């Protein structure tokens, strides 16, 4: 098993302000890597970078960017052009439960940019850099069950399925260049996304695992040159044994409940939205 630090002195982490992205940043700083931290929240990134610098003596660079907008990936790539990046953690993503036909097309395009196009653009740019130097590592964060289809989140699940397929192919394609690629497919990880999506924590099939554990497993899978890793032993075994149709039904039930929960939350927030 290779050491994560052997990829190079700097790592780029997207979606670094919270959840799995923040956990990746914490693990990498503890391993001695300097960090390019990317997300929309400047204050949270600055606070995280300063905290990790104090704890581990590492350098950091904050890139405030909305990766759901066209051209934003190019801005991040440019911001990291002058440092020796050897590792890319392409983690940023989002989702919005609901029926596809009820959602504005502009919103769907924006989320597709974040959930798929940005991963492609970052992999293309940093993958070329890594291949030219003869070594590098890439972790793409997808989602468990995306390949089976996710009712009431069909669009975002489809984008995540693209990321999983992209990473699986590049794992083979880039191996000869010295670039390792792993897809992390979390399904039962405790992050703020669960509340954002309106999901019921009690409805998950197995106990939620900490984001730190998921990130740690993702880095270990990359070091072992695995193409795909599902964090959590129980959910990983279930993913191997349970047919896709079961995941589709379960995810459809959970997402359907999330849609109703979000609608109730919105109704409460606007006081019933009564009109006179």
UniProtKB/TrEMBL annotation:
InterPro entries linked: NAD(P)-bd_dom_sf, SDR_fam
Superkingdom, taxonomy of origin: Bacteria
SUPFAM superfamilies (UniProt xref): NAD(P)-binding Rossmann-fold domains
Keywords: Oxidoreductase
Keyword Oxidoreductase on entry: yes
Family: Belongs to the short-chain dehydrogenases/reductases (SDR) family.
PANTHER family on file: DEHYDROGENASE/REDUCTASE SDR FAMILY MEMBER 7B, SHORT-CHAIN DEHYDROGENASE-RELATED
Protein name per Swiss-Prot or TrEMBL: SDR family NAD(P)-dependent oxidoreductase
Species assigned in the record: Nonomuraea rosea
Organism phylogeny: Bacteria, Bacillati, Actinomycetota, Actinomycetes, Streptosporangiales
